[in-house]
Amino acid sequence: MTTMKEILTAAKALPSAERARLIEALWDDISPADWVPPSTQWITEANRRSDAYDSGEMSGSSWGEVRERARRQAGLDD
Fold first, then answer.
1. What are the φ/ψ torsions at residue 30 (nearest 5 degrees)?
2. Which of 20, 31, 49, 56 is 20–30 Å from 9 (CA)?
């Protein structure tokens, strides 16, 4: 049987675009009932950013801009 460490090593050897597709495939296969709740630190940071956005201290980007940036950084649109 293949171990988690062996799978992770093999996954890390994939090109960036393939790793991104692997992440998507794995994520899509996880039931919401099995999702791990966010940590207290994550919730605190999310609330801080939400407050900063609401007060005008921080701006946002459209989904199209975020998606384009993420795909470029993942090597999917080279």
1. -95, 125
2. 31
Contacts of residues 32-41 at CB distance under 8 Å and 24 or more positions apart, as own/partner, are: none
Q: pLDDT 10s per residue in the chain (78 long)?
A: 789 999 999 999 999 989 999 999 999 999 999 999 999 999 999 999 999 999 999 999 999 999 999 999 988 875
Count how many residues are written for the chain. 78
Answer whether 0.70 is exceeded by the pTM. Answer: no
Token duo for residue 18: 């393939």
* Pairwise CA distance, residues 70 & 32, whole Å: 23
